[in-house]
Amino acid sequence: VMRDAEDTCIAVCSMENVDPLGVHTGDSIVVAPVQTLTDQVHQRLRSAALAIIRALGVEGGCNVQFALSPDATEYAVIEVNPRVSRSSALASKATGYPIARVAAQIAIGRRLAEIPNVVTRTTVAAFEPALDYVVVKLPRFPFDKFPSADRRLGSQMKATGEVMAIDRTFGAALNKALRGLEQAGAGPLAEDATWQPTFEYLAAVYTAAAEGADPEADAVIRWIDEHGEACESTRFAQRSAAPIVLRRFLEPSDSRLWRVLGLLRRGVPGATIQEATGIAPWFLAEMERNVRLEPEVRSLGARLADPTDREAASLLATAKRASFGDRDLAALAGIPERDVRNARRSLGLAPGYAMVDTCAAEFAAETPYFYSTYASTGSPPEAPPVTRPAALVIGSGPVRIGQGIEFDYCAVQAADVLRREGWSAVMVNSNPETVSTDFDASTRLYFEPLDPESVRDVIEAETGPGEVPIPAVVAYGGQTPLNLAAPLAADGVPLLGSDLETIDQAEERTRFAALLDRLGIPQPEGGMAESEEEALTLAERIGYPVIVRPSFVIGGLAIDFAYSPDDLVRHLAAAAIVDPDRPVRIDRFLEGLEVDVDAVCDGERVLIPGLLEHVERAGVHSGDSVGMFPPQTVGAGDQALIISTMERIVL
Fold first, then answer.
1. With helix as H, strand as E and coil as C, how does 358-374 read?
2. Can you give the three-state secondary structure of 385-442, one letter per residue?
3. Which helix (H) or strand (E) holds 252?
C-alpha cells in the first residue's frame, strides 16, 4: 500500500502465495493478482491494510502480510513493514508501478495526486494499478551448490534469487517461469529418478481408489523401494500407510512443485494432494490442466511437426498458449526441437507481445515494457521495432551463488552506454529483483525467460521486414548470455564485441589449453576426460590432488578437488549434472598464490587496469577470497610477467 501526507492511500498490488502458511514468502510461489479469493474477502483485506497504514502514519510505501484461514472466514495480520520490502520489487515489476520512485517523491512532500504516472504519462500515481494478465514468481534455490543442505522450507528464507513470468493465465505463466529458472532439473517436465518408486507406490494406491477399486480387496502387491529392494505388501497396508508417505513426500521443500506435477501426471487426484499440502484446489486444477496436455502431445509423436496435420496444428497451438517450450514439446513427441520450431513457423504460430501498462489498457501506455503471449498470436503488434541502430542486451537471469547483481550492473551499464551513443537498447531478462528490469533502464524491456527460444522470438519481434536481425550483446550478463551465443549465432544473429569463435576458444577448455601450448605459456599438467575410466587413468598419470572442472560454468559450480579415486568419481557425477554433454577438464592442483587480471581490448591494444592478489592461497574461489588491490607480495618482475602473458593471450 502507499500513503502520502494528505492521507491519500492506495493498494498498489495484492499478491497471493501458492504455498500455505509456514513457508517464507521469499521461498514461496507467488501470484499476482490474487486468484483464489472472492472479491468480498479481497476487499476486506484491502480495507484492513489501508486502515493499518493510516493508523501508523506511514508516508510512502508499506508492505502488509496477512494469514487467511482455508475457508477465508478469518484473517490475521502477520507483519507490517513500514518500508519497501522484497515483495515491493516484485509488486513494482508485476504492475509497472514504480513503488520506490513514488515513495521517494512522497518523502520530499509531494502527494500521490501530484506525482505523474511515468508509465502512462497521462494519469497520476493516485490511480491504483489494474492487471489484465497473471504474474508468477518462482524462487531460485542454491541447493545445486549445497546438495547436502537441509532442503526443507519453513519460516527462514533459503532462496537466493527469483524469476518472474507474465502471461494471460496462471498455467502459462507458471510454465514460462519454470523455463526461466536456468537450473538443471527445473523445467516443466523435470523429475528426479529417485522419486520413481514413491510415484509408483502412491499412484497405485490413489488411482485405484479414484477408479473405484474394491476397498475390501487385500491382494498382495509387489514393488521396488527407493533403494532398489524388492518389497511386497497388501493393498490394505498400502492404503493405511499412503497418507503418511504422501505428506512426507510433499512436505515443503525446494522440489515440492515438481513432485506435485509428477503425482498429477500419474493420476493422483488433486483433492488428495490438496489435503496433504494445503495448496488451494484452483492452483492444482490449473497445474493439472497443463499436465493433461503432455500425453496428448506424446501420442501425436512425429505428427506434431507436420503443419498440414490439422489435429497436430491445433494441439501445437494449444500447447504454445500454455507456454510449453519447443524443447519440451520436442522431448514429449520424440522429435528434434528444430522440427517443432519449423512447424510452428509454417503455421505462423509466433508469440505476440503485450504491454505492461498499470491500467489494464484503460489508458495508453508510453513506456515500452512487454511480455510474450500466444494469446496474441496474429494480432497487430502493440509497437513497431525500435529505431535502428539497436542492440539486444541479454540480462543475467535469476540471482544465484556465483552469478549475482554484479552481472546485472554490467548489463545496465551496457544499455546506458548504447543509449548515450544514440543506439536503442533492448533489454531481455526474467529477474524482478534487478535494475535491468526497471522500465526506464533501457529503450525497451522484455520480461522473458533467457532460453534460446524466447530470446530468438524477441529478436524476430524487433527485426522489421528486410532487416538483418538485431545484434546481441552477450558479454555483460554473466554465463547465461554466453551460453546463448552459439544458438543465436547459428540463427544468423550478429554478436557485438567478441565473436563466437573467440568465446568458444576461451570457454572450451580443450581449445584454450591448445592455445596456451601454441603460445608457449605454461599451464598445469592435465587433459580432458569423456568417461569415468578416462578420468581415473588421467588422474593416476598426473598424480593427486587434481582439480575437476566442467566446461562453461561460472561461480565454481561443480568444480572441486579430488584427493583420491573415490573423490574423483563423486565429483564426476556432480559435473555430469551441470554439463552432461561435454567432457570435464582434469588438471594437477598447484599450490601457491593466486592473482586475478582484468583486461580490455579493442582488437589492437590491451589495457590492464591492475592486478588483484588473493589473500587465501590457490584453491579458494576468487569470489570467496579476500582480495588486495594492488598486489602486496607479488614482486614487480612477476607482475610484469603476468601482464605480458595476459596481453599475449588476449591478442
1. CECCCCCCCCCEEEEEH
2. CCCCCEEEEECCCCCECCECHHHHHHHHHHHHHHHHCCCEEEEEECCCCCHHHCCCCC
3. none
Give the integer Cα–Cα distance in Å for 608 and 600.
7
Q: Which residues of 232-259 are buried (b: 16+ CB within 10 A; e: fewer)?
A: eeebeebbeebeeebeebbebbbbbbbb
Closest alpha carbon to 91 in 144, 41, 39, 34: 34
| Nearest by Cα to 158 from 254, 18, 31 | 254
3-state secondary structure of 24: coil
pTM: 0.90
Residue percentage of the chain with pLDDT more than 70: 91
> What integer pLDDT is reported at residue 321 of this predicted model?
96
pLDDT surpassing 60 at residue 576: no
pLDDT at 232: 67
CA separation for the pair 628, 612 (Å, rounded): 6
- Are 335 and 342 in contact by the 8 Å Cβ rule? The answer is no
Query: What distance in Å separates the CA atoms of residue 172 and residue 168, rounded to the nearest whole number?
Result: 7
Rg, the chain, Cα only: 27
Q: 238 Cβ partners below 8 Å, 6+ apart?
A: 201, 204, 205, 221
Segment 268-311, tens digit of pLDDT: 999 999 999 999 999 999 999 999 999 999 999 999 999 999 99
Question: Which residues touch 314 (CB under 8 Å, ≥6 apart)?
Answer: none
User: To 10 degrees, the CA torsion angle through 162, 163, 166, 169?
Assistant: -80
Does 494 sit behind a cis peptide bond, omega within 30 degrees of 0 on the bond before it?
no
Classify burial at 384, counting beta carbons within 10 Å of its beta carbon; exposed 0-12, middle 13-18, buried 19 or more.
exposed
Percent helix, percent strand, percent coil in the chain, to nearest 5: 40, 20, 40
Instruction: Record the cell numbers describing residue 360, joined without a space.
Output: 489494464
Predicted pLDDT at 222: 64
Cell numbers for 527: 587433459
Write down the residue that cell numbers 537466493 correspond to: 160
Mean pLDDT computed over 539-551: 85
Name the E strands within 50-199: 60-61, 63-68, 75-81, 134-140, 161-167
For the chain, the straight-line distance linking the first and the last C-alpha, in angstroms and rounded, comes to 55
Q: What is the pLDDT of residues 405-438, one digit of tens each?
A: 888 999 999 999 999 999 999 999 999 989 999 8
List, as one string, the DSSP characters of 584-613: EEEEEPPPS--EEEEEEE-SS-EEEEEEEE
pLDDT band per the 50, 70, 90 thresholds, residue 578: very low
Are 439 and 370 in contact, with CB atoms under 8 Å apart?
no
Give residue 80's identity as a one-letter amino acid code.
V
